[in-house]
Amino acid sequence: MPPRTHYEAVGLIGGAKEARVRLERLLERLKPAPSPELVALRTIEARELNGSSEARAALEGLAKGPAEDHLAAEAKAAVARLARRGGKR
Predict the structure, then answer these.
(1) Positive or negative, the Cα torsion across 3, 6, 7, 12?
(2) 8 lies in which domain range?
(3) Domains in the chain: how many in total?
């Protein structure tokens, strides 16, 4: 029966450090890449956490997108949260 999880696979290797390291690298390469939308959402979050004037300007630009655009709505919400905090971290 093949291992169902990453941790099971690594556990099968036991104490063989080199084999465990190779398996970890292989499993890391097999992870699916994040979707473009997830990358965009993380970028919005990172800019909000940054809180700099440049980050705020980028969020404000994105927030001007169409009302039905999910990312524009997220950026708009981030701008509002920054405004409530006064832009300070």
Answers:
(1) positive
(2) 1-31
(3) 2
